[in-house]
Amino acid sequence: MKRLSYLFILLAGLLVVSCDDASNSLPYGYIGQTEQGSDTYVMKGYESAGNGFNVYKPEAIGTPFYIKSKAFTGRNYAFAPVSGESLEGLTTVPAANAFSENAEVKPATCYWVRFNRYNHYQMGKLRVAYINGNEVGIEYVAADDVDVNNANVANGNKADKLEIPALNAANQYIEYYASVSDEEGAEQVLNFSLEYIASKKHSAWVAFDFDPITSQDNVKRTNEWEQDDPNIDNSVEVTESMHKSDGYDKGHICASEDRVYSTSANKQTFYYSNISPQIGSFNQKYWAALEKQVQTWGRSTGNGVYDKLYVVKGGTTDRLLTNFTGVKKANDGLYPTTNAEGLTPGGLICPSYYYMALLSEKAGVYHAIAFFVPHSELLPDNPGKNEFMVYAVSIESLEYETGIDFFCNLPNEIEKKVEAVYNAEDWVW
Question: 27 pLDDT band (50/70/90 cuts)?
Answer without folding.
Answer: low
